[in-house]
Amino acid sequence: MAVPVFTARDVETAVSPHEAYDAVRTAFMAFARGEWSMPPKVYVTNYPAGDFRAMPAIGGGHALLKWVTSFPGNPARGLPTVTGLVVLSDSDDGRLLAVLDAAAVTALRTAAAGVLAADTLCRPEASSYAVVGCGVNGAEAARVLVARGASPIVWDVDEERRRTVAERLGVRAAASAAEALTCEVVLTVTPGSEVLYAANSLEPGQHVSMMGADGPGKAEVALDELGRSHLFCDDWEKASSKGIFEPRVRLFVDDWEQASHGGEIARAVEAGVLGRDDVTELGAVLTGDAPGRQHPDDVTLFDSTGLAIQDLAVAKTAFAKADELDLQTLDL
Length: 332
Hints:
15 strands; Rossmann fold; eight-stranded parallel sheet; alpha/beta
């Protein structure tokens, strides 16, 4: 049996930013409605070096398993942070249908999820965008934003990396991290080893898609900022009319089960600062079963841990183009 193999270039050729965005949106909604399913990802750790992750999912006539790594120190060794394979199968008869480069699938779906959350939760009039972190996933996030009509500024601690991404996409490199972090819409795509938003640093009306803290011990936002969701009133009209309004931090996640154990909010859950009722899953907002932003001055935070259903959506989209591409095959 000849199984098509999608290299990183093949994945990028097969799935445009718009197609990835639409596919990930469909996956979130299918998951929220119980039409697609997945168990939480399994971590096999070798900290502080990095970790391995096994991520299965099933839906829409296909099943998937992604075996992927995250080794943040690898670029200093000339190696990629993320490597691995995505295996796509027919869910009705178990046939292996395709093998895909995991890093390329991960970059596309991570970017699409971050931009989708931003579009769903930011203020409609938002006009300033930033991507913080210009690694593979951050660069892809900037590419998806540009494809959807935004002109983000980009920042990375590595000057050459941020300039390279800015030049490639025709956007501006931020003058400083502070400039990027104060934009109205921010996608943080860092290794999660350093807190970017200290206590009381988030601006009224701001949205941040937190893409970097996708494993234990990682954080991009201070615990005090996550806890601010408890501190403010619920009756905005009454409060603002009396001049006592303060913005509320509203928290959204891709999946509660996964985020509460390995995401940005995990520290707050463990400390008893947050519970299940304090966060909303993005899929429920997309299906209309839960509210998103409720006031222009709300601060909205999206905790992205990366879901196998997102990988499944991108892999399905790529596989549908298999006959259009000159792919290598794996003979089994």
